[in-house]
């Protein structure tokens, strides 16, 4: 048999048995090259080294066997609601019957002469005494060439998730074929010195063992192959973490290699002037972060910093300090927020902080009238405006700055790579401050934001009272609105009520904002109750929020559109219905919308009727702490890093096997080795250049979106 000539970047349509239709299906799930498919790891394994013949089957003992379908038929049995599918299965040693209930599709997928692997518990039928396997698991065997060891039986076999109608058996055969074609490959993307220091398996041997393990660890079952200690898996855990840390270090080095275009003048009395104008005292954390920004501005390279803070920790004030310093150096600033509600909120806050220092501000959103927008843009172009606060409107071609030196991006993950790139290109290598609304665990921030310097706001401003949280049990729900919310409205305080759905859904047993707006409006007609959802127009949203800000509306029914940035000092109560449907970090954001004035805040979490005990235990964490970083750490342990990784723009490597909580020790080792490799002065420049190029090429082939990510700060 001629060896198939494949490379890691070969398109999958050159692999036998894939063809155009299967190629399209694979492309839809992100598999376009040989390399893509090699990283589609099994989710479990089956030990088929001792596949039995039909004659060896023992009644009552579950077993796997390979057989040919001799006959298959459908039977309608009286008193049985669903039809029965019955098949006669045979091999060289004998015959056994298989039955399935209500699975008519098997008549098409298992026609006579089909060879398949069956797994189930054989029993002697009380009806006719024949050996019968009820509802066995079935896996059709892809045809294999003579003389080739089967990928499907007589070995430990990988089991893959079925995708786009492509079976586990299909993936097993194709991946096995690819590995056979690459046999003897000595390539490794990880530099040899790092591979040696980390004592990890080589790349190709680890790949083979991940897909087709030779043996089980001594005294263990197939579950041991899914453990992080399994050497091939350990290799790929390290690889994923090393790639991430290398990319962060590389990007940070590249950013810091480009000199600042506009030198800055730091006013010696700047901090004291700025602080004297504040109506409150700075926290130590705010002062520290402001000092870090000032130090960055004094450096010969531009700032690239992440401001990480809890809800209500004063992030906007710290960002305003950068605007103040920029204006002092004759430079303009841009502050981009993802929504018009949030942009207007920031504009109001920043105006109060900066206008007394002679800083001129403008708000630019899609709803600004044409004539007003034209005049505003001209003033920005002439340098008459120091700070422009806005939404995506800031990136339009018509807007040009006279001297843009400082950019703040709030909730940067809601902006695409090209959008951020366009805004940054409006200045000459400006300073950039990124803010996130969600507290991110520090361990995660150091990894997924490792290209940025980190400023941490871990203190609550003086006078800011904690928001108390309480879970409302099922028996309290009937009297909840009258006993707990009625008195709040009578006192003239304001209430948020949040729902997971905008409208009623046939598929979900959840309360929805639209229906409950009607119910609550009928209950309290004098409360001016309004509805706020993401589907409303900007004018409708602004009218609703203005009514809530002014106090005309005392109860606002909403979806999570209020999750971030909405500042209503009179709002003291947050009610979240079906609270189990939200992440802890998201719920923490929601409760951060209340208690922002002089009165303490209260958050009621109302679980749905079918909430599990695990969900209730998770919600209890919010009753126990109001520290966003503690909540974030717990959320990371429970739900994994997915919730937080969403706060980073796409393009970064996604983990298939690594886990930042479980693999913390490996992460630290990978970070140290990646940092050494990025910063090293090589003893052998040619070897280092070769390894660097190999590593970067492999990462770019493995993660196609990473090139775009590397291009943007």
TrEMBL record:
A Pfam family reported for this protein in Swiss-Prot or TrEMBL: Helicase_C
Task: Tell me which EC number(s) this protein carries.
Answer: 5.6.2.4
Q: Where is the Helicase ATP-binding domain?
A: 296-457
Question: What's the catalysed reaction?
Answer: Couples ATP hydrolysis with the unwinding of duplex DNA by translocating in the 3'-5' direction; ATP + H2O = ADP + phosphate + H(+)
Claim: Nucleotide-binding is one of the keywords in the record: yes
PROSITE patterns on file: HELICASE_ATP_BIND_1, HELICASE_CTER
Q: Which InterPro entries match?
A: ATP-dep_DNA_helicase_RecG, DEAD/DEAH_box_helicase_dom, Helicase_ATP-bd, Helicase_C-like, NA-bd_OB-fold, P-loop_NTPase, RecG/Mfd, RecG_dom3_C
Q: Write out the coiled-coil annotation as residue ranges.
A: none
Q: Name one GO molecular function term.
A: DNA binding
**Annotated ranges, domain Helicase C-terminal:** 466-637
Record carries keyword Hydrolase: yes
Matching entries from SUPFAM superfamilies are given as: Nucleic acid-binding proteins, P-loop containing nucleoside triphosphate hydrolases
Q: So which domain of life are we looking at?
A: Bacteria
Keywords assigned: ATP-binding, DNA damage, DNA recombination, DNA repair, DNA-binding, Helicase, Hydrolase, Isomerase, Nucleotide-binding
- Could you tell me which Gene3D superfamilies the record lists for this protein? Nucleic acid-binding proteins, P-loop containing nucleotide triphosphate hydrolases
Q: Give the GO biological process terms.
A: DNA recombination; DNA repair
Say which family it is in.
Belongs to the helicase family. RecG subfamily.
Reported function:
Plays a critical role in recombination and DNA repair. Helps process Holliday junction intermediates to mature products by catalyzing branch migration. Has replication fork regression activity, unwinds stalled or blocked replication forks to make a HJ that can be resolved. Has a DNA unwinding activity characteristic of a DNA helicase with 3'-5' polarity.
Q: What is this protein called?
A: ATP-dependent DNA helicase RecG
In its UniProt entry, the species of origin is given as: Leptospirillum ferriphilum
